[in-house]
Amino acid sequence: MPFAPLRGFRDYLPPEGGARSEIRRRMRSAARTAGFTELETPCVESLELYQVKSGEEIAKQTWTFEDKGGRPVALVSETTPSVVRVLVDRAKSAAMPVKWFTLSKTWRYEEPQMGAGRTREFTQFNLDIFGVPGVEAEADLLSAAALVMDEVGAGGLYSIRLNDRAVAEGIGRLYGVADLDRFFQAVDRFRKSSAADFGSGLALAGVGPQGARELTAQFNEVGSGLARAPAEAFLARWVERGLDRTARTGVERLQRLLELLDRAGLTDRIVYDPTVVRGLAYYTSTVFEAYARTGESRSIFGGGRYDHLVELFGGPAIPAVGLAIGDQTLELLLRESSRWPDGEPGLDTYVVVVDPSQTPEAVAIVERLRRAGVSAECDLLARSMSRQLREAARRRCRRALIVGLKEASPGALIERDLATGEQKEIARDALGRSA
């Protein structure tokens, strides 16, 4: 009986495996450019790690089992608890700020929707900054995220929606909210709910019909988000209506963050959206999500500030902010815009032999090129010269080096540019230096 991947899992054959590898390479490169260093954590953790503090939905989706020693363990369903665990272990010796990125496989037991970017196994790219109490950390984090998105080819395809949970809580208190969790659930689903369903959700949180109508009108006014100037005007109206001190502090944070992001040149992709509250319980103030600008309103990444999580894991009080980008929704975004890479970068050089007896020389040339840092390959199947050249084109090689052509001078090879067809001689002794 033939075997196949389990439901919700996928194989990634060439060139798709190479395309995904190329995306990961670009993400790592952008993160390092932004001053982040890579952290790698295990794919299996103690179940207790997730019982400390994870959102209810993620807790339900975590794959759990007992290991052979009878210990309850879990496949990693989100990377942040692992990252915080590592930080707690070295908090006393770590120089602040700590800026880490992780690129890890993640598992969640949820209903698969392969065409909608929902699988049970996916790769998650995280950026986290520890030790910075002000919104300068959020500005740096979002600047790095924008660099990552641009590097993978998503520039112009998304916008980042900002909010502050203190502001959202303050708005709820203005309307007599008795249950903030239910209020957040209703607000978080505003864009996916009918007016009636939104009103019902608010009613469960303690908001009356008139308040529900006012909030619906206010949130509809925002549309897909407000740029800096209209956002500040919108927030000023809430302050005038009587936001308490805690909520006004959240307004001040948002204004400062919008200013910093403006100065960073990110105005074209940053908007304020009061309906962004994020579902995870550990967020403490600023929250943000990136959404595709066209087509299906799909979240590309999300994150926020989680200032108390390190303490919950037994560490000292260390402010923190982070975000996570999922590979599946990012791939859909890039494919829909024809920006998904063809695969890994093509080979630089294919060494072609006129006669199979010259294969040992081709092998020696390939080895020399590889040692010089040039990607190279030669034929291993004793094929004809024409078939070797077709193989070089299939591998998207930049050039072919042809061994054994009679017109070549002694000690020389023929170099053929596979894009233009132009040929020239190149001395064997120059290989690796002129490549």
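(the above was protein one; protein two follows)
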Amino acid sequence: MPTNGFTASKQKEFIFELVVTQGDITPYGSASFINYVRWYNIARDALLQWRNLGLDEALRNIVETEASLCDIQYKREAILQDEIIIKVNSSDIRQDEFTLLFTLIRKADALLISLGKQKIKFRNFKTGEILNLPAAFIDNVLKPIEIDEKNSLYKY
């Protein structure tokens, strides 16, 4: 049995939990499309706490997060009162861009609800300039949760 391949037990991730509320569901009883995107963004923002980005003080107040891609794969419905675990991993880390991979799982029975993918950049909203990722952010936030997307269940 090879030891250098990807296994779930080797995977590290950032974890965020939420509960599906009345405001999240449609009249048909399941979560609406926009809530999946909103949940990914909430988990992303929780991961990207500005204090962890490694930006100098002058840039902190003029940086915005830009998601240039957002893909979603639905596996099953999220319904009212579901407790959901969102696991976030990084992938494809570049000088000025990185990818976040999202796995939404129902907490009660570990059923896969959704997979998501976002390509993220940081932009100076005053000048429009795309910023390079700070080394401290890569080393302290992205690298600890990095996986090789080709060796996991994300197939886009």
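Reviewer note on protein two: The first helix runs from residue 33 to 47.
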